[in-house]
């Protein structure tokens, strides 16, 4: 297991840890995790405000020589507190639904910093985007282009558009979060993009602003991004020759972080590769990082309820389950699990499981970990992205509370749900 508290690699790329041991006790910034459990109960998502700020600052620093706009990908964590923090830091937003649009407008996002991605925007969502006057709809099919033009004509609001190109680039990541090949539903092939641009410039209700792509998520290598950029630059060259000019290139998100011992994507190197290729072009760069801004800023604090054994296995039953954190079940993803109080050197190999009635309800399997006992607290690390947002009420389990820590300040940013919240709106 990698010791938390260690600064990241030389370029200090994305992850500087804000969860550290102070002697034997795990802290978030200056606050003891154990104190948070006492105050708010478990399971609870804990976020470090400084981590998010530092992550954003780090991305901005790396991009400083490029004309750019960072549009935080809201799906990674859509809590208003986090959106508002990033908005105040200068971020724009990448949204994928009417719900996310409502959230970013709620925190005062400027419309010309919002890009709208996704293969299935409905008429109401298109109307909401048009009324807000967003920077661009990232159009993912011919049908969607027609639908946007029709809505735009109907409500007399000109639509800004980019075509999302599927560059057919392989990104070495989990198949469920890889998006940039022809087997995936996203974007359109280059050839079709050219046709769609010609259609778009002929439609008075549309204004061509950019070109977009997104090749996948949790990508650790620089090369696939460079390859994707080269593909879209190539396309812009032929479009320019045909008189169709872009203002920006949207390279999407997907910047990989460290969960266990991965080497995070080297953002510094990525930035210099991009810079080299963009030199002499008129384009502004749009990036859509999600995980890289919030992933390492969150931990799920949970308490051990029982420890049970059979001839083959040890099971650590905790009070958080797959409904609270889906990633291990959904992607087989690994998250470090740290004892909140380090009081033994002794380890064992166990499955860390939740209380749900599903074999797939696990947070870790066959994990060597400190020997814990009922009543102990553990923290599931690096869950700031795609943690709470993927949670559900399966088994009628109220969703966890969420708490933000800033130095020694503690703020409950969402209370734990109660059973009555889950029944609200239902009829008997
Ligand atoms: N832009 C677009 C168009 C996307 O589809 C995504 C993520 C992003 C940006 C942000 O990607 P990021 O920088 O966070 O990698 N639930 C999965 C990840 C799904 C990603 C979906 N799209 C997980 O837990 O790993």
Number of domains: 2
The CATH superfamily of the largest domain turns out to be Alanine racemase
| Category by helix and strand content | alpha/beta
| Termini separation | 50 Å
Strand content range? 15-25%
Mean pLDDT: 94
Q: What is the molecular shape?
A: globular
The total count of helices amounts to 12
Reported by name, the CATH topology of the largest domain is: TIM Barrel
**Rg, Cα atoms, Å:** 23 Å
Which blocks of ≥5 consecutive residues have pLDDT under 50? Answer: 1-16
Name the helicity range: 25-40%
State the total count of DSSP E strands: 20
List the helices and strands and how they pair.
Elements: E1 19-22, E2 25-28, E3 31-32, H1 33-40, E4 44-48, H2 49-62, E5 68-73, H3 80-89, E6 92-95, H4 98-106, E7 114-116, H5 123-132, E8 136-139, H6 142-155, E9 159-164, H7 190-201, E10 206-212, H8 223-241, E11 248-250, H9 267-278, E12 284-287, H10 291-294, E13 298-309, E14 314-318, H11 327-331, E15 337-339, E16 347-353, E17 362-370, E18 377-381, E19 401-406, E20 409-414, H12 419-423
This protein binds ligand LLP.
Ligand LLP is lined by residues 73, 76, 94, 117, 177, 214, 217-218, 252-255, 288-292, 327, 331, 385-386.
């Amino acid at each position: 297991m990698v010791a938390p508290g260690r600064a990241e690699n030389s370029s200090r790329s994305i992850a500087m840890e804000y969860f550290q041991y102070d002697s034997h006790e795990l802290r978030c910034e200056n606050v003891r995790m154990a104190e948070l459990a006492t105050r708010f109960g478990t399971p609870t998502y804990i976020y470090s405000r400084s981590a998010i700020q530092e992550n954003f600052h780090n991305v901005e620093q790396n991009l400083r020589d490029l004309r750019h706009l960072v549009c935080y990908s809201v799906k990674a964590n859509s809590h208003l507190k986090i959106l508002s923090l990033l908005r105040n830091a200068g971020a724009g937003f990448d949204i994928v639904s009417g719900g996310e649009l409502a959230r970013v407008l709620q925190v005062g996002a400027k419309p010309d910093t919002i890009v709208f991605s996704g293969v299935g925007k409905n008429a109401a969502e298109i109307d909401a985007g048009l009324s807000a006057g967003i920077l661009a709809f990232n159009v993912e099919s011919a049908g969607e282009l027609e639908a946007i033009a029709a809505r735009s004509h109907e409500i007399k609001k000109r639509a800004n558009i980019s075509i999302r190109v599927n560059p057919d680039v392989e990104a070495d990541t989990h198949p469920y979060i890889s998006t940039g090949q022809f087997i995936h539903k996203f974007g359109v092939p280059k050839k079709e993009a050219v046709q769609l641009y010609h259609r778009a410039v002929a439609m008075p209700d549309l204004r061509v602003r950019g070109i977009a792509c997104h090749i996948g998520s949790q990508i650790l290598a620089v090369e696939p991004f460079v390859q994707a950029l080269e593909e879209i630059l190539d396309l812009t060259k032929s479009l320019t020759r045909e008189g169709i000019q872009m203002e920006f290139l949207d390279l999407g998100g997907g910047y990989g972080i460290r969960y266990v011992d991965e080497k995070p994507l080297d953002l510094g190197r990525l930035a210099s590769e991009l810079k080299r290729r963009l030199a002499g072009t008129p384009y502004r760069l749009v990036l859509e990082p999600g995980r890289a801004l919030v992933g390492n800023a969150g931990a799920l604090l949970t308490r051990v309820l029982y420890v049970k054994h059979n001839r083959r296995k040890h099971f650590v039953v905790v009070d958080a389950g797959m409904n609270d954190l889906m990633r291990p079940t959904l992607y087989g993803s690994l998250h470090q699990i740290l004892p909140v109080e380090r009081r033994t050197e002794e380890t064992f190999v166990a499955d860390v499981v939740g209380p749900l009635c599903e074999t797939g309800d696990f947070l870790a399997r066959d994990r060597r970990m400190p020997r814990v006992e009922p009543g102990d607290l553990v923290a599931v690390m690096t869950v700031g992205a795609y943690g709470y947002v993927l949670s559900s009420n399966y088994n009628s389990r109220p969703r966890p509370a969420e708490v933000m820590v800033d130095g020694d300040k503690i703020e409950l940013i969402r209370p734990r749900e109660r059973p009555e919240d889950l029944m609200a709106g239902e009829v008997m």
